[in-house]
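Retro notes, item 3 of 5
We never archived the inputs for the iron/sulfur cluster complex last cycle. Fixing that now. Sequence and ligand:
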Amino acid sequence: MLKKIYLARYHGFCMGVNRAINITEDTAARAKGRVTILKEIVHNEAVVEKFRRQDVEQAFSVDDVSDGTLIISAHGVSPEVIAQASAKGLKVVDATCPLVSRIYDIINEAVSEGCHIIHYGESDHDETAGIVGHASKHITVAGSYEQLLALPEWKDRKLGLTVQTTAHKDEFAAVVKLAKEKWPEIRVFDTICNATTQRQAAILELAPKVDLILVVGSQTSANSKRLASISESVCAQAHLIGTAAEIDPTWFGDGTVVDAVGVSAGASTPQFLVEEVLKRLSEISGGKAETILLKTADTTS
Ligand code: SF4
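Structure as it came back at the time:
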């Protein structure tokens, strides 16, 4: 019988997502002509759908946008994309998260000092594409330990190591260890963002209190998937769900030992989806479960 519902201390929208959404709302309200978001402003269907309803268009390539304003998502893009949009006469509004832009600056500076960069991240993620585009001849992407170990010896090269903002800090620590064994002189730039670290730590805080963790977020959201995989590693049961409708009541049925459930949400998940999950869990408990909101000391990140 479900008795307690814990909400993670840090969950949901981060600074970069809040900023990108505010920029998009502001642009949609002020722009005279068409407004188009390049790809997804953040990786969450509810947010993407909200802007669709406000007549903000979506395109997957600059080639598909003929006029008006083009908004660059929180994940950022390569300079070529911005140049291509400007050359077409589009007004570019850049909602790239400042913590992603910071990686561009770190890489540009390291490259100017003669470094070749190894970027540890998902090769098919928008953030990675934007990062690579900032110094494509000087960056090699590794998406796994195996890919890292398979890289050349590069004995005469100065090397730098950067990492996807949403990576897990323990995984990155292991990557740093491997990299240092292979290239003792490599310069390490920890570019994991604070919001990611806080949300991951909040899962570890939840885990000992609960029998099951629900992470609210999209399958396309790297940080939500990461929270779900951390939850799976520290809790008996964990599920990544897009909405409250995906909660299966049998997870809490007779014969299960789920007395307490933990709820978290990825950095691109709107709070209303979290509230709907809390409401659904309360219904499943017959209104008997106590909801415990772990206090947030800092709501700015
Ligand atoms: S998760 Fe971090 S890097 Fe990504 S948008 Fe949020 S604050 Fe920026």
